[in-house]
Design goal:
This protein is mainly alpha-helical. The chain has one domain. Helix content is about 65%, strand content about 10%. The chain has a two-stranded antiparallel sheet with strand order 1-2. The protein is elongated and about 50 Å long.
Length: about 110
């Protein structure tokens, strides 16, 4: 066996096991439930800067950031009308979960 082939075999042994689609879907369902339970507070200070805080973390810094950015965009676009903001965030939740799915898939390849 050549040195290159032995090296490639050794590298393959170090790879994490493949994740099934069922496992990925299970993680997506858990994240969706977490997102439903998180309250997002968005406000603007006297200098016009926007601030966001979450009642809890989703467990993913990336998702927390996306949730704040998305909600802030919805608040700014809806002129702070609660019902309109909630509908906006609901529509965009699927995009946040899709980003989470892609992140899982990238990290497990």
């Amino acid at each position: 066996m050549s040195i290159l082939a032995a090296f490639l075999l050794a590298q393959g042994a170090a790879l994490p096991p493949a994740v099934s689609d069922d496992e990925v879907e299970s993680e997506i369902v858990v994240m969706a439930e977490r997102l439903r339970s998180i309250s997002v507070n968005v406000g603007q200070d006297s200098e016009g800067r926007w601030h966001c805080s979450l009642s809890a973390s989703s467990g993913s810094a990336r998702i927390d950031d996306l949730l704040c950015r998305t909600t802030t965009k919805c608040v700014r676009g809806a002129k702070r009308k609660r019902e309109t903001v909630e509908q906006c965030v609901q529509r965009r939740r699927a995009d946040i979960l899709e980003d989470f799915r892609r992140g899982i898939q990238r990290s497990r390849k």
